[in-house]
Amino acid sequence: DSFWGEKFDCPLIPRYKLFFVEVKMMGFVGVGGFSGLAVGQKARISGTGLTSGRRVSVARLSRSRVSMTLAEPMVETEAPVSASEESFVERDDIRNIAIVAHVDHGKTTLVDALLAEAKVFRENQTVQERVMDSNDLERERGITILAKNAAINYEDVKINIVDTPGHADFGGEVERVLNMVDGVLLVVDAVEGPKPQTRFVLKKAIEMGHKIVVVVNKIDRPNSRPDYVLDSTFDLFVELGASDEQTDFEVVYCSALKKVSGPSPDELEDNLKAVLDCILTLPKPKVKVDGKLQMMVSNVDYDEFKGRLGIGRILSGEVCSKSEITVCHPEKDPKKQRISEVFAFNNLGKASVDSASAGDLVMFAGVEQFDIGDTIADTSAPSPLPPIAVEEPTVRMSFSVNTTEFAGREGKYVTSRNLRDRLMKELEKNVAMRVENTDSADTFIVCGRGPLHLTILIETMRREGFEFLVGPPDVIYKKIDGEQCEPFETVDIEVQEEYMGGVVDLLGRRKGLMTDMGSCNAEGMCSVTYTIPTRGLLGVRSAILTATRGTAIMTTTFAGYQPYAGDLPKKDQGSLLAYETGKVTTYGVEAAQERGKLFVKPGEEIYKNQIVGLHQRPGNLNINVCKTKALTNFRASGKDNDKNVQGFVDLSLDDCIEYIGQDELVELTPESIRMLVKVTKKKK
C-alpha cells in the first residue's frame, strides 16, 4: 500500500515536483480519486511535499494536493517533421498575446501599466484611468465589454496585446480573440485566487492549446496569499485537462496599480520588466510567409468615414492595400472584393501600412460584404479556414415598438424599421447574438448569452436615441435525448457570515444546489458555490443584495444544459399600478405610500397601468398617486406638505429588467425608463 518514488528529470512546476512511481506491493482501486492502478504499473504524480526516495502512503497522497495520470516514463525523441510543417517559419520580431481574467482582477489596469512601461505616453501627458476602456458603459460599470487591441515594442519585439472581456455573457468576444493569439496572460487576484470566470477563460485557452503565463496581480494587498493562489491555479489547470506543457506554466508576481513586478513575492522591482520578459517566452507565431493569403476575420469595427472594418490575423501570405482578394466560407459562395487600406496596430491606435505579412494582427477597410468567421484569401487560390464556432445563446427577450401613451415624445428612432435595422447592424459584429422575427412586424426576439449581454445592447440603443419596449428575459429550452433541458449557471457568492443563512435560503427556493462552501477568511467573508437554473437567477441579484445589506459579491458562469428542474415559486409581492394618467402629486403619494414602496416622485408624469411601486402583498393594486386636494371655502390648495413623504426606490435599467414578470414590459427612451403592465384589449 505504498509507493517508491523516483525523481524524473524534467522542468519543475513552481513549488511542485513531478515523479514517476511504480506500485511495489498490492494494487488499489478508488482511493483518494486514484483508481485502476495495479501492481507493477507505473504512474506519474505531481504535488507538494513529495521527496525522492521516500515512501508515501496512499492516505497521504489522497490528502495531499496532488494529481496522478497513468503513464510510462517519457523518452525524449525527435518527432519527424512532416512536409506541411517544413514550410512554417517562426517570426522572432512579434508576439501575439491575449490577457484574460475574472471580472475586476486587473486586466485593463495591467494593460495600462504595460503601455506606460513601454513609454507609450509622454512624461507630462495626462492619462485617464483604464485607458483601454473607451466605451462610456465600460467606464460606468467598471468592466470590459468589447475586446480591444494595442501594440507595444520591447527589446525590438512588437507585442500585440488584446484586452478581453471578463464576464461570461461576453464569451463570444473571448473566443474570437483567442483565435488570433499564440499565448495567454492569465491574471489572478493575489487574494481571491481563481474565480468562476477565471475557469471559463482558462478552459477556452487550454482547449485551443495556448501556452499560458500566470500573473498574480495585486500582490501589494495586505491580506494577499500568493501560495494559496498558486496552488489553486495549478489545481484548476489539472481539473480542466491541461497538457504537461501547459501545467508547466511560468509565474510572475506584480501590482499593476503600483507598477512593480518580480519572479517571487519577495523580489519585486519598481518596473514591469518581469512581466514583459515572461511575455517574450511565449510561443512565436508560426506562419507561412511565402504561402497564399489566408486571414480569418475575428472581429468587426465601424468607422463613420471608412465604413466596416475587419480585424484578423494573417495566417499565411501577405495582404496589401488596394489589392484584390476573395472572401470565402465553407458554407458560402466565394466573392471577389478589393481592400482599399490596411492598418497595423500601433500603441493605442492604428497606422496605415502598405502591406502586412503572416503573423501580424491587422485591420482592413474597403471590403463591404463579409462576416465574422469568413476567410480573406488569395484570388488565385481561395481556400477557406475552419469558421469560428461560438456557443449558442441561452436567454431571449422581446424588442417591440413603443405603443404606450407617451410614445414618440422623447425618442429619435421610434419605428419598426429603425428598430429592425439597428438589430441587424448589431449582428454584424456580435456573433453571440441572434435576432428572430415574430408574427408581428413590430416585435423581434433577441437572443443572447445572458441578461447582461442583452442589457448592454438595450442601454446602448437607448443612448443612441431609440425608443422601444422590452419584455422580461426568458431562457431557451432544448430537447436532449427526448428530455426537456434548460441552461444552468454556476454561481459563486462571497458574503459576510451573518448573512449566509439568507443567501442559502434564497437560492434553495430557486432550485439551487450547493456544490461547495468555503471557510470564512480573516475579514469574515465566506464563499459559497451553487449550480442553479438560469431562470432561477433572473431577478435574484437585487434580492441577494437586499438580504445581505448590499455586501454580497456574486459572479456567474454558464454550466451547460441539464434536465428541467421544475417550477419556481411565484413572486411574493405584486405591483402598484397607476390608476390614471397625470402628474404625481405629494398629496397622492402620502396616501399611496402605505400600500408599499414607490418608484415615482412628485412631479413626474405617468400614464394609466404604469408600475409606480412595489405592493407589500401578493397581487397587483391600482392606486391614484395623481389625486389633488379638494378645494373648498375652508381649504386652500397651497403647497403640499412633504414632511410625511417617505423615501423612493430609484431603479436602474438592470433593476427594471430583473423586476418585471411575464405580463410586464419596460419602456425605454433616451430620457426615461418606465415599467408597465400589458393590457389585453377585450373584443367587443
Task: Set down the secondary structure blueprint.
Blueprint: E1 2-7, E2 17-23, E3 42-47, E4 55-57, H1 58-63, E5 66-70, H2 83-86, E6 89-90, E7 94-101, H3 107-117, H4 136-141, E8 148-154, E9 157-163, H5 171-178, E10 183-189, H6 196-207, E11 211-217, H7 226-239, H8 244-247, E12 250-255, E13 260-262, H9 273-280, E14 286-287, E15 294-303, E16 307-316, E17 318-320, E18 323-329, E19 332-339, E20 341-346, E21 349-353, E22 355-357, E23 361-365, E24 375-377, E25 395-401, H10 416-427, E26 434-437, E27 443-448, H11 451-463, E28 468-470, E29 474-475, E30 478-480, E31 483-496, H12 500-509, E32 513-517, E33 525-533, H13 534-537, H14 540-547, E34 553-563, E35 575-578, E36 582-583, H15 586-592, E37 596-598, E38 605-606, E39 611-615, E40 621-623, H16 653-659, E41 664-668, E42 673-677
Parallel strand pairs: 7-9, 7-10, 10-11, 11-12, 35-40
Antiparallel strand pairs: 1-2, 1-4, 2-3, 3-5, 6-14, 8-9, 12-13, 15-16, 15-24, 16-23, 17-22, 18-19, 18-24, 20-21, 20-23, 25-27, 25-28, 25-29, 26-27, 28-41, 30-31, 31-33, 31-34, 32-33, 35-39, 36-38, 37-39, 41-42
Summary, kept brief:
The protein has 16 helices and 42 strands. Helix 5 (171-178) runs parallel beside helix 6 (196-207) and helix 12 (500-509) runs antiparallel to helix 14 (540-547).
Considering the chains and any ligands shown, give keywords for the structure.
20% helix; seven-stranded mixed sheet; alpha+beta; 42 strands; eight-stranded antiparallel sheet; 684 residues
